[in-house]
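Example 405.
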Amino acid sequence: MTAPDYRAEAEGLLDQLVAWRRDLHRHPELGYHETRTAALVARVLRDLGCEVRTGVGRTGVVGLLRGGRPGPTVMLRADMDALPIQEESEAPYASQAPGVMHACGHDGHVAMVLGAATLLARHAATLPGRVLLVFQPAEEGDGGAAAMIADGALADPVPDAAFGLHLWNAMPMGRVCAQAGLFMASADVLRIHIHGRGGHGALPHEAVDAIAVTGQVLSALQTIVSRNVDPQEIAVLTIGTVRGGAAFNIIAEQVALEGTIRTFSPAVRETVLTRLRVLLDGITVGMGASYTLAVQTVAPTVVNDPAVSELARAAAVQVVGNTAVAWRPPLMVSEDFAEYQRYVPSCFMLLGSGNAALGLNAPHHNPRFDFDERVLPIGVALLATAAAKFLSGSQEVPVGRLVDW
Ligand SMILES: [Zn+2]
Ligand SMILES: [Zn+2]
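Predicted structure in complex with zinc ion:
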């Protein structure tokens, strides 16, 4: 029996995929508010014959598709949340929700995993094992993956492998990257409060100026990456917001800072945090101020399992041929797919979705973000092929010369 040609079958789903994606794009929902999206997902999965659990991790949905023969369990994951961005688009499918927009492509991710479920359901009778379909809320920094896991998304059945992908406008449409090892950085949110002592702007000697302290802190923080982190390692420390002060003649009592740390190694992350605390201690004590620091982990590093990544790359070569990418430098962005990787050997892939000729290459999180929808069947075929390869125990290795990044 020959294996299904998932690429050809996925192309046949194009109209349905575009319809799902545009419907979701018109009706974007922020993290933990994805009720309309979840209802659509649950309806489609039930129609496909899946067992469906809703309300997992608050607004998440888990579907289970049983193959006709016993075997392992493979998981496919999509994220459902949109971003608090006002869309700038003349497209007929532009967001109808003021100030909310699918600016990261998660609408496409939902459509692609629904498409992969459609194809795998079509071939369920001959599939060994089960497909666990995880649609999570709140990927954009609010812990949706961890919430799903805490609510038992991976408990019954326990998946043996997982695949996920992200559309990526910085790569041309249809290019796939599915490399083993380090793939995306860890991310932490920093919240720093500098406490001084407020006073009259003309009587600085009676006050402790939190803004003056903040100036020293901001300057000193720039030395952490440049002077304390091994130059062969990688780290980012960005302060994104500074808020303080009330009027021209008042010495600010408090300044609040927010920022982020991105690294590829727990040791480097610890170095950055340790130096941050030492500098805050020294500067605030020296200037008569005090501080509080809160560190919130958004996501650990995405590190792809070698064997599962090998399968993903074999699927990529089968689906897109030699435009699969052998390797690209790891990205400083983060993904909470990393939470699943703590428990399940898995591979997170990037799927190129940009098309400069059509003007569909704005960066992710930009108000003009949009992608080439012809990528949708490619993603469907990639996910379905990878899942089917894992379930059937395929040991094929990639062939052909993969292109360099
Ligand atoms: Zn995003
Ligand atoms: Zn995203």
